Amino acid sequence: DSPPVARTIKNLANIYAVTGEYRKAEELTKRALGIFEKSFGTANPDVAVTLQHMFEIYSGVGDIDKAIEFK
């Protein structure tokens, strides 16, 4: 997988999150995060934005402890 594919996956995950399908959003966001980290390392804007999305997903389901891991 490549960064453009990861961006598409992340965008799809955002749609799932907005529609309340947090489990699907979580799965896809983790996949995108893995691709970004493999491609760029951890110090990259795409990684940072994707981590923020993970925070938002866990906040959305009320899992504050898990959300804090990504903040």
User: What is the terminal separation in angstroms?
Assistant: 26 Å
Biggest sheet record = none
Question: Number of DSSP helices?
Answer: 4
- Can you give the mean pLDDT? 95
| Structural class by helix and strand composition | mainly alpha
The general outline is globular
For the secondary structure, the number of strands is: 0
Helix content: over 70%
Write the element-wise H/E pattern from the N-terminal end onward.
HHHH
Radius of gyration: 11 Å
Catalogue the unreliable spans.
none
Strand content: under 5%
In short:
This protein is mainly alpha-helical and 71 residues long. The protein contains 4 helices and no strands.
Tell me about this structure.
The protein is mostly helical and 71 residues long. The protein has helices at 3-18, 22-40, 45-60, 64-69. Helix 1 (3-18) packs antiparallel against helix 2 (22-40), helix 1 (3-18) packs parallel to helix 3 and helix 2 runs antiparallel to helix 3. The longest helix is centred in the middle third of the chain and has 19 residues, at 22-40. The N and C termini lie far apart (26 Å). The mean pLDDT is 95.
